[in-house]
Design the sequence.
């Protein structure tokens, strides 16, 4: 099974859409008490620097369950995204290979503090990926996900775009593990570590 670790409340809600698939083992680090399984509750802080401390993870048991490889889901505008490096360091010490799935919010609707947090997380995580600390980072834009929702509803905005992402993420994993009849793909170079999810229309002539 593939390990998924959500850091923060927003990421924890996103991965809820993956729990229906048997392919994934889902873990969470957040401060919402809505989850009964594989969840470690952390204290909620207003200062991101307080999350950048290994002591925040004292008493957690879920990191010990993660072996070999994990995809870490994180939303850059969340203050708790500051936990990402601390968590990654703990997992790296165990030899776990780490991929980052990074969600960028619509920056028109975040506070100045959230925008600053997002900019910092966005750049730092990419830099760590380039240096080889992370195997890969996949950048996901909430604003782009909106375009694939038939009728966006403000009341269910996040549920709708999260469903679009989760179904896409799952199908990508399905196709990765399916032997193609014909293929134009080639092995990715080791230096190609930053990616996103693209959409193509096979019937388009342009």
Sequence:
């Amino acid at each position: 099974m593939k390990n998924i670790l959500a850091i923060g409340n927003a990421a924890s809600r996103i991965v809820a859409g993956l729990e229906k698939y048997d392919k994934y083992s889902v873990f969470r680090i957040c401060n919402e008490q809505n989850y009964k399984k594989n969840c470690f509750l952390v204290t909620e802080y207003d200062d991101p620097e307080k999350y950048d401390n290994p002591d925040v993870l004292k008493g957690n048991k879920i990191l010990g369950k993660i072996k070999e490889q994990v995809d870490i889901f994180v939303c850059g505008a969340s203050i708790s995204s500051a936990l990402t490096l601390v968590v990654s360091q703990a997992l790296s010490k165990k030899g776990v290979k780490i991929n980052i799935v990074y969600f960028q919010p619509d920056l028109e609707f975040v506070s100045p503090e959230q925008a600053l947090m997002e900019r910092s997380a966005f750049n730092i995580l990419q830099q760590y990926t380039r240096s080889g600390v992370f195997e890969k980072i996949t950048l996901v834009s909430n604003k782009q996900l909106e375009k694939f929702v038939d009728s966006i509803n403000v009341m269910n905005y996040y549920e709708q775009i999260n469903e679009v992402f989760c179904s896409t993420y799952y199908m990508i994993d399905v196709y990765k593990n399916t032997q193609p009849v014909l293929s134009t793909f080639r092995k990715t170079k080791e230096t190609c570590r930053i990616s996103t999810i693209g959409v193509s229309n096979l019937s388009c002539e342009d």
Observations:
- Residues 157-176 form the longest helix (20 residues).
